[in-house]
Amino acid sequence: MKISTIITFISMAMLSAVGSAWAATDSNVAITHLDNYYKFVPAKDGNTLERIDITSQTSLTARRIAETAIVSDFYDSDKKLKKATGGNVKYGAYSSGDIFFDDSKIVMVEVDLKKPSATGKATITTSYVRPEFFNKVLILDSYDIDNATFTFEVPASMASRFTFEPRNIPADKITTTSDSKSDKTITTITVRDIKHPKTFSDAPSLNITAPQIIVRGHFSDVNDLYRYFYKYIDSPDPAAAAVEAKAKEITAGCTTDDQRIQTITRFVHDNIRYVAVEHGEFGQRPDHPSEVLRKLYGDCKGSATLLKAMFRAVGLDARTVWIGTDQISDNWTDFPAICSGNHMISAVMLPDSILFIDGTARFDNPPHVPLQLHGRQAMIEDTPDRCLTAFVPSTPASDNCLATDFTLNITPDGLIDAKGSMTNTGDWHKRFLYKLNDTPPAKHNETILNLLLNQLKGKTARLTDGTEISETSSTVTAEISNVGKAKKIGNDLYVDLNMMPDISALKYDTRDRTVGGQLSATMMFDSKVTLNIPAQMQAAEAMDPVSVSNPWFDANVTTLISPDGRSAIRTMRLETKAKFIPADKLSTFNSDLNKLAQACSSSIQLTPIN
Question: Fewest C-beta atoms under 10 Å: which of 430, 444, 475, 493?
Fold first, then answer.
């Protein structure tokens, strides 16, 4: 999957979601009982699985008024639909996220609840013909679930292999029992009172936070899983010579390995369009590198294998890397399962380190990788039997900085104008480049000025010294008119020095919220405002410094009067630390932000010089 934008979709081929279509919640309908039965069917050898048959029965009721309830499930070439009953059955194609095309389909059963308290039942039977794709059950629905039963029937010969691990379910809402018989073991997990989760764009993925049951046992360890993945890349490219020739052509002028790495990465970023086409085996098998080069498009697997082939063509030790973004809940070694990853990149093995390179992230050139990969565990190609694992390094928040430095002047009519600069580094710089990339060159200045005005809340702006764009940063220098107005009370002026980024935008909506928050990135704000004090006026005493430190960020605001008394300077620095804020700590997070925002926006008093 492409991860230059935040990924919110986890493929249905990797997990099973229970119940109805994922849509806006309908509090009028409730699932009174959900009964899912999973039968693990062995192959003829008795040691491997042939398939997993699933029967899902959903009993519903209308609470207040008549309603048409919808129960649905997904299927594709790896998960087959057998039968759907209980109402008006409809079928359709399904796709989501950055997927250009996949073979996912949806079946919907419309259950007519003709009056209040009416009941109905829908039954859908499916079968995982590729049982290794059945990794977890997400217990979420667009309706509240009063009671649910999940029964797993496993052949006795495999009973010690498979386990079922509930997560994110309060202990008082769950019961687990196991019954062993001569030919099978039956594990039953019952849960109650599962509310439809209110979704928030600033929350961790439902794949992480939703009530769920983890299915362990398809792979014995990370190397067993790696061997499964490796078979998809272990095939010779019939036109490898074309890739080798292109790699040598574009690096002909390079004299160092670093130059070769940078040149090949930029070639792939600039020329290979991201297009995801997924069908059959969840699209696990990548195109040959020569095909990606010929077509000039591919998915993450295509760009990763092309990078690897081109690097190897110029003598570098390059490898394929399987990885999960921060939308994934587990590391490979903790849960060796297909659903523990959703992305593929490449790596160059250096004498003293590993250089990770993402072919889909256009503006993340080595050694930078997208923030969604920082701290994630990589499964790295090594021998056909064993992989290497390593964690992608995390950069400090200071590497992703939005810095502003503006001088304010009060006009004769009391308006405030500003002149200064805004500098972006790291992820802020990347966002800036993506914004420019999405607009025609003739509109670049207009786009830049709009970004500046949106950030600093002025009325009009003009570039003064242009825009400096380098590999790692971008700086905009401009004059901005009417960023505020000095308030006159008697003979005194009160001036708002808040030219800071709007840190209150980081606050979380806590209404009806049961899930925590997730910052989009580790980042820093570093802002300075200098007010030129008009002649014949002086600043009153500056406010005391304000500092906040909590598990998620450190910040401080200071206001100083220059030694000559002709200017007032306010600085604000905020540096994030942890990305995830627990639900019960969001109020603390918001309160600390409010404290900072108030300090940033407090006015400075100017009085006449006697």
Answer: 444
Alpha-carbon gap, residue 37 to 15, rounded angstroms: 15
The amino acid sitting at 77 is S
Which residue in the block uniquely carries the two structure tokens 């825009």? 467
Residue 90 makes CB contacts below 8 A (sequence gap 6+) with 107, 108, 110
Q: Please name every residue paired with 225 in a beta bridge, in sequence order, or none if there are none.
A: none
At 284 the pLDDT is 78
Do 55 and 73 meet the contact criterion of CB atoms below 8 Å apart? no
Q: Where are the beta strands (DSSP E) in 339-459?
A: 343-349, 354-357, 377-380, 388-391, 401-410, 415-425
Q: Is the alpha carbon torsion for 508, 512, 516, 521 positive or negative?
A: negative
| Interacting residues of 136 by C-beta distance below 8 A, sequence separation 6+ | 15, 16, 212, 213, 214, 215, 337, 339
Which tokens belong to 486? 């000095």
Q: How many Å from the N-terminal Cα to the C-terminal Cα in the chain?
A: 68
- pTM of model > 0.85: yes
Contacts for 469 with CB less than 8 Å, ≥ 6 apart: 433
Distance CA 473, CA 266 (A): 17
pLDDT at res. 98: 56
3-class SS of residue 448: helix
Please list, in sequence order, all residues whose beta carbon lies within 8 angstroms of the beta carbon of residue 588, skipping any fewer than 6 positions away: 550
The neighbour count for residue 450, using CB atoms within 10 Å, is 14
Whether omega before 367 lies within 30 degrees of 0, making that bond cis, reads yes
Handedness of CA 127, 130, 136, 140 (dihedral sign): negative
pLDDT digits (tens, 9 = 90+) for 515-544: 999 987 789 999 999 999 999 999 988 889
pLDDT tens for residues 148-182? 999 999 999 999 999 999 999 999 999 999 999 88
Q: Which helix (H) or strand (E) holds 136?
A: strand 136-138
Task: Supply the DSSP string of 521-534, one letter for each residue.
Answer: S--EEEEEEEEEPP
Are 79 and 126 in contact by the 8 Å Cβ rule? The answer is yes
Task: Return left, alpha or beta for 179; rule: phi > 0 is left, psi -120 to 50 is alpha, else beta.
Answer: beta
What 3-state DSSP class applies to 109? strand
| DSSP state, residue 304 | H
CB 21 within 8 Å of CB 72: yes
Closest C-alpha to 144, from 19, 17, 38, 55 = 19
- Check: CB of residue 604 under 8 Å from CB of residue 531: yes
Distance between CA atoms of 199 and 355, rounded to whole angstroms? Answer: 36
Look-up of token digits 């509090």: 27
The pLDDT of residue 77 = 86
> Closest Cα partner for 306 from 316, 321, 291?
291
- What distance in Å separates the CA atoms of residue 570 and residue 559, rounded to the nearest whole number? 4
